[in-house]
Amino acid sequence: MANDRHGRYRFLAGAILPALALYAVFVLSPYAQAFYLSLTDWTGVSGQVQFVGLDNFTRLVRDPLFLAALRNNGLMLVVVPVVTIALGLLLAALVTFGGRRGSAIRGASSYQTAYFFPQLLSLPIIALLWQFVYHPNDGLLNGFLRAVGLDALARTWLGDPHLALWAVMAVLVWSSVGFYMVLFAASMSAIPTEIIEAAVLDGAGKLATLWRIVLPLLRDSVQVAFVYLGVLALDAFAVVQVMTAGPGGPDNATEVIGLGLYRNAFTYSRFGYAAAMGVALFFLTLTLAVLALRAGRRERVELA
Amino acid sequence: MATVTYTQATRIYPGTERPAVDHLDLEIGDGEFLVLVGPSGCGKSTSLRMLAGLEDVDEGSIHIDNRDVTHLPPKARDIAMVFQNYALYPHMTVYENMAFALKLRKTSKAEIDRRVKEAAGLLQLEEYLGRKPKALSGGQRQRVAMGRAIVREPQVFLMDEPLSNLDAKLRVQTRTQIASLQAKLGITTVYVTHDQIEAMTMGHRVAVMLDGVLQQVDTPRALYDKPSNVFVAGFIGSPAMNIKTVSLTDGGAKFIDMIVPLTREEVEKARANGGGDKVTIGFRPEDCDLVGPTEGGLPVVVELVEDLGSDANVYGHAALDGVSERFVVRTDRRHMPNMGDTVFVKPRADHNHAFHAATGERI
Question: Cα–Cα distance between A163 and B306 in angstroms, integer?
Answer without folding.
Answer: 85
